[in-house]
Amino acid sequence: MRIIFFFFSITCLTVCSYSQEKSSETFLADSSLTHASVSLCVANAKTGEIILDYNSGISLTPASVMKIITSAAALEILGPGYTFKTTVGYTGSLNKRSGTLKGNIIILGGGDPALGSGYFSDHYKGFLDKWVAEIKKLGIKKIKGRVITDDSYYDFLPVPAKWLWEDEGNYYGAGAYGLSVFDNTYEIHLKTFSGSFPPVIKEIIPDECRFELSNFLVASGTTDEGYIFAAPYSKQGWLAGTIPVNQEDFVLKASITDPPLLLAKIMSQKIRAGGIKISDDPTTVRLEQNYKAEKSVPVTETLSPPLSDIIEVLNHESVNLFAEHLIKELGKKLKNDGSTASGAEVINEFLKGSGIDTNGMFIEDGSGLSPLNAVNTRELVRLLVYMKNQGKYFSEYYSSLPDAGKNGTLKNYFKDPLFDSRLKAKSGSMTRVRSFAGYFTTISGKEMAFSIIINNYSGPSKKITSEIEDNIRDLISNY
Q1: 7-22: string of b/e by CB count within 10 Å (b at 16+)?
Q2: Mean pLDDT for the chain?
């Protein structure tokens, strides 16, 4: 396949239409691609001149390569120094002599995708304890009210409508809330046995995420094929699939079904542990249908890391949650509507303003998790060229892409020393989808922007990825 594809590449360079047609037919004769859709585009990153083009105009499912679009729009529109703010305050009246607050502690979400995130543990270290300390400084000893988390900054539809049901309950399918926390992820620890014994749930961390989970898991083999099925805001769910046998502590990571409520519960517990009495149970604005918003007295606030740092993690580690927050934030800031649909409109407007043809592009989310997203490699490459030559924040954009064979989602790909310091790209993968988009520099010094998307291939994905690596290696070596 590698030799055939390289022959195809050379014939494209000679711009011989007859040879191009014949070579593409030979390329697609590979058994793994018999029923596949393949799209490829490579352009000079400085001039935009298209060097290679095969089916670059067809719309295909990009998987996580969608993130290069979302992150480009967010950087250019919001700027690399943009931050999110979470505010803690109180409502009602505070009697400083008795230390009694007749009102509520309000935690006002501001769309921070990374609040309490494990990716930024140093930045948020002890943030809840700091909040409690600031409340205690006011002399509050008793709260005749409750902790209320206000998650109304975005809409109350955290999961894009076009996501698959099997994804929503798992950590990578965590939705974007106006007040997200701890990567909207919790852990289910299980012990597995051999034979016909079912896996046993040992522990749930944090325990406040515990709810009714029916366990249909089976211990079999050595691979993880376990899934959690649970919808946002639900109080019931189930586990299904197979997980490895004979594991003392096997962990499934699940999406928190109501992060704002979880934060309210944890904060309420910490306030009580700090010696302050609270009369009522914690809740959220969404749950309090008759809640009337009052102007709260600010106590403290927590700022997120700058957007450039968030996007670097987003693209390096392919964090779906961060991307879903960014698409909603774009809708919130430019259309005063924190929804995925409004954010998608903003991204489309950004693309059109950047000279990108959006016909045939369908944006259903910010992360690429929806199989109904569709883009084409030609316009992806045009976006990459635009960012390099006209983008205000190309250095931040470029650094957010993983390095070949070194870090992020490319850590185990492009490990040949030839790629070292020559290739940075975003990868994308889901069932029967493999994609890459980014930049590489040839041995002769030419800077290239490239994108390749393959849908509905057969056989092992490892073979497809290996062939893609071989073909890009040939381009680096020979063009």
Answers
A1: bbbebbeeeeeeebee
A2: 92
